[in-house]
Amino acid sequence: MVKKISIKSIISIIASKITIFLTKTILKGGTTFPGKVALKIDKNILSKVSKGYNVVLITGTNGKTTTTSMIYNIIKENGNKVITNNTGANLFPGIVTTFIDNYKFFKKVENSYAVIEVDEANLKYITEYINPEIITVTNLFRDQLDRYGEVYTTLSKILEGIHLSPNTTLVLNGDESLLGKLELQNKTVFYGFNASIGNNKEIEINADAKFCKFCKSPYEYNHITYNHLGDFYCTGCGFKRADLEYAVNEVLELTPDSSTVKLNDLEITISQSGVYNIYNGLCAYAVTKELGINDNSIKKSLQNQDSSFGRQEALNIEDKDVKIILVKNPAGYNQALDTLCLNKDTFAAAFLLNDNYADGTDVSWIWDVDFEKLHDLNIDEVFVSGIRCYDMAVRLNVAGLNKDTFIIEETFEDLTEKIKSSKNDKIYVLATYTAMINFRKYLHSKGYIKKLW
Q: At what angle do helices 64-77 and 275-290 cross, to 10 degrees?
């Protein structure tokens, strides 16, 4: 028996499913257009195809895709049915596509979860039609200034979406000062670091939220993890970090490949490196604990989390160990560079910079990235590519990297050939969004990546 929905909705779903099939088979991807087709026929289709799911929405500047994947895998490990937009298609039409792709006319959704990554500016379009069980916000950094503006603008866009869903539990990064004391009626729990990383208390000169959002006094810190995240307090008005429900209580080991930490009292190895991935793992831990999932499922999943789709994605290219890391703003880029700094042996690094709309058309942000920290590392080959490769080369030269090691290739075909002939077995590829997408497409065409989307 077909579920009770209107003829218009049925036509909308069928048209979208046909479009999904065509885009997957002919275009080998494309997750936004099928949703646009559905919405053109029935603008309310999301409220119908999402019925029955316990929905978790993940938003924020950095870490959305990885955190979404972590939460999805934990729920799956626990034996629950779950769907997700795993390629990061996080705009309104892409999310509609995800639900329609999983929609069955003759099957009622029961005891199932939908773990959905949402673009910050699109949250309000989703919560207009869905009342999620949980909304989590990872962090707020300057990102694509031509699109979002400053961090306070991004926060206001997120709050517009939260205000539409007052019964949703909020799981917020307590180390993010912008998310403190929001005066919302939602149940709110916070996660963050009780353990310090290197006893750092001095905020970076280019940090994004250095001043109290209430009285504008500069924040002081008991410790900083990176950028402006940490155990903050204001000496002007007394505003400080909220009490943490879920915390990193001890950092046991940091390596170029993983991190071992204590989340509350649970010792976990997170199979992706970097402090930012500890935050992602902590967020996933907090969300899934709120969903009532047991520690064993969380621990087993996080220590076996696969990196994919440009998020520390590991590839083998002619016996070269290549790791692709998506970088899109100063805060995330600096964390990626910190991961490189954990290496003690010689390696090569590739820097891919594009300026398409999805990257941010203004690339001046690369001057806020601390490339100078690479100066003393054993990097004996520096590959540079992408639309704005010469801008990147100038930035790296000013940072003090040896220009004699620079290998500039404007095309990904030539870049790949140079990587294949590299004298290094380990190569990091740091790429902005469309550079990562297009590089992966090229590698897929040559058989180095099996799954494009």
A: 40
